[in-house]
């Protein structure tokens, strides 16, 4: 009997504890330039019903992040349980050799976790804004709601916010600065021929928003480097921008393009 009790206690200690606040350090608000998503070899599609989004940076996600990668068994409770109990590939990739650099799937990774599924009801008053500011460009699934659900499940469940606040705050943060306008103020405008020094792009964002952001580049179908995503750093309440505490490894070369969309 004692053995059974000990086993049950051990099992419960390994299960994710949804009442425990995630202890991440900051958020990344990640916005993608649609021109740089679409002109790659894989191409892009426009969301069902909504058509071509406007030529503006669109939200990719609001991601809780650690300031320093943590060892695989650093966290007790949820983190350890996920490492031990059937972690999925993405989670294992996040754990990687460097340790775990961000929390993810805090409500569990499986499809059966109904309690952590995003419901259209949760964001009913935000759907129009989300459609404009957070459109999917994927050809695999052209329903933006599926993109939001995926982001909620993978990142939002670790945010210590409820679904409505998670999406509302991401929208409010994006509203503060129109990144395309910030770049245009510095003379960085979409072009399929011009290239810009990446430092000028970085400085323009720091000057225009007041905070240093990280940049991610990808390559167009001809292999040329272009600005793909801007990672702005945000406090733990998802209310205010902060300077990014961490530089990111980057594929940005000295000069980058901002392709027309
Ligand atoms: P994450 O980078 O948040 O871990 O994963 C993004 C996932 O969302 C990928 O599976 C990707 O296929 C899907 N996705 C759907 N729409 C988009 C989009 O517009 N941009 C990006 N980057 N990913 C998208």
TrEMBL record:
Family: Belongs to the RNase T2 family.
A Pfam cross-reference name: Ribonuclease_T2
Range of residues in the leader sequence: 1-21
Glycoprotein recorded as keyword: no
InterPro entries, per database record: Ribonuclease_T2_eukaryotic, RNase_T2-like, RNase_T2-like_sf, RNase_T2_His_AS_1, RNase_T2_His_AS_2
Protein's UniProt name: Ribonuclease 1
Keywords from the named record: Disulfide bond, Signal
PANTHER family according to UniProt: OS07G0630400 PROTEIN (PTHR11240:SF18), RIBONUCLEASE T2 (PTHR11240)
Alphabetical list of Gene3D superfamilies matching this protein: Ribonuclease T2-like (3.90.730.10)
Keyword presence, Cytoplasm: no
């Amino acid at each position: 009997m004692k053995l059974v009790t000990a086993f049950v206690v051990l099992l419960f200690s390994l299960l994710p504890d949804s009442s425990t606040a995630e202890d991440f350090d900051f958020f990344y608000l990640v916005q993608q330039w649609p021109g740089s998503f679409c002109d790659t070899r894989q191409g892009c599609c426009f969301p069902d019903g909504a058509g071509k989004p406007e030529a503006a940076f669109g939200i990719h996600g609001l991601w809780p992040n650690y300031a320093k990668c943590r060892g695989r068994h650093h966290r007790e409770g949820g983190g350890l349980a996920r490492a031990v109990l059937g972690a999925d590939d993405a989670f294992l990739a996040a754990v990687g050799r460097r340790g775990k650099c961000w929390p993810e799937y805090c409500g569990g990774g499986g499809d059966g976790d109904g309690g952590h599924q995003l419901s259209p009801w949760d964001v009913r008053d935000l759907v129009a804004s989300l459609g404009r500011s957070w459109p999917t460009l994927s050809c695999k699934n052209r329903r933006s709601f599926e993109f939001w659900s995926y982001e909620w499940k993978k990142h939002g469940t670790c945010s210590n916010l409820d679904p409505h606040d998670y999406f509302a705050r991401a929208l409010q943060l994006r509203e503060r600065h129109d990144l395309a306008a910030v770049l245009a103020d510095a003379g960085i405008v979409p072009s399929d021929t011009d290239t810009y020094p990446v430092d000028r792009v970085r400085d323009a964002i720091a000057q225009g928003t007041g905070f240093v952001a990280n940049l991610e580049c990808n390559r167009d179908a001809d292999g040329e480097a272009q600005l793909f995503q801007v990672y702005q750093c945000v406090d733990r309440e998802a209310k205010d921008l902060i300077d990014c505490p961490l530089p990111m490894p980057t594929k940005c070369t000295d000069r980058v393009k901002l392709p027309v969309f």
